[in-house]
Design a protein that fits this description.
By secondary structure, this protein is an alpha+beta fold. The chain is about 45% helix and about 20% strand. The protein folds into 2 domains: about 190 residues; about 110 residues, 3-Layer(aba) Sandwich (Beta-lactamase). The chain contains 10 helices and 9 strands. About 40% of the residues are buried.
Length: about 300
């Protein structure tokens, strides 16, 4: 009986809190940012997180791509259900296969009705025996989070190989344990997992061209810039700000991991942010991630 009023109060609380923190951020940045880089960001994010109800679990990691001294972690090493964010390392393994000549993105896959699964995506509406290039499967997996495309790619690459790539680049808390929409495995505890810090590590490797080739890294970033889900990291940011990111949604977790191409005057100030929220409704999770993202953007674009 009390659930609805509590949700309403929580929404008001978070909404009222954000402007106060943004004002604090803008007033104190000029005083402290030079002597202790990142202090204002850390204090502001910490204050925001401490004011959330105890039932809300936020895992997040923020890192400047220009200044290694500016970063913030909160439960960043916690293993969290990945939802579709696990598609980031799947994409990376796919591009590594392209790099060594074991996969051609223009290769045709013949879609069968047996491969189709529900949830997000459009392939489930395609006719049986449709011809789809792997390049399009990759785009659908990342831009529309297409679950059928993802399962086809997992089958092509092999889950063991994807997990080996995860470990090779130093992601210690991430693992692919099931295909998309395998609710039986999920209920039995065989879920897919990532951590906020792991996803920032992966994205930084791509941004700095430390995996596969520079050309393929740039292709991955361009695909991530097309993400159709704008309800989390991009939620409150100016529409002209470029964001390369991948979201994930389950009934019990909402996540987003990406690169925000902020600017401070004429200076580029790109930063990484990965955030996962559990223990609250989907709408509130999106609101929290959006407000955390805006606080970070406000700091980096000062």
């Amino acid at each position: 009986m009390n659930r609805k009023p509590k949700t309403k109060n929580f929404s008001n609380k978070v909404g009222a809190l954000a402007p106060t923190l943004f004002l604090f951020l803008s007033m104190t940045t000029s005083v402290l940012s030079q002597s202790r880089p990142g202090l204002v960001l850390t204090d502001s994010l910490t204050a925001y997180l401490h004011r959330l109800p105890s039932t809300v679990r936020v895992s997040m990691s923020v890192k400047s791509l220009n200044n290694t001294r500016v970063n913030f972690d909160h439960r960043a090493d916690e293993r969290v259900p990945s939802a579709s964010v696990i598609k980031l390392p799947i994409m990376l393994e796919m591009m590594e296969r392209v790099n060594i000549g074991k996969l051609n993105l223009d290769e045709i896959h013949i879609l069968t009705n047996a491969e189709k699964v529900g949830g997000s995506g459009v392939l489930q509406t395609y006719p049986d025996q449709s011809r789809v290039r792997y390049r399009e499967l990759l785009r659908l997996m990342m831009v529309l989070s297409d679950n059928t495309a993802t399962n086809i790619i997992i089958s092509k690459l092999g889950p063991e190989t994807i997990n080996q790539r995860i470990h090779t680049i130093g992601l210690t808390k991430s693992q692919l344990n099931r295909v998309m929409m395998d609710t039986v495995s999920a209920k039995q505890g065989r879920d897919n997992f990532v951590s906020a810090k792991d996803m920032n590590t992966l994205l930084e490797n791509v941004y700095r061209h430390q995996v596969t080739t520079p050309e393929l890294c740039n292709q991955m970033i361009e695909i991530l810039k097309q993400n159709a889900d704008t309800l989390c990291i991009p939620r409150l940011l100016p529409k002209n700000i470029v964001i390369a990111h991948k979201t994930g949604t389950l009934t019990y977790v909402r996540g987003d991991a990406g690169i925000v191409y902020a600017k401070s005057g004429r200076r580029d100030e790109p930063f990484l942010i990965s955030a996962f929220v559990e223990g609250v409704s989907m709408e509130e999770s999106e609101r929290i991630i959006g407000e955390l993202s805006l606080m970070c953007y406000t700091y980096f674009s000062r």
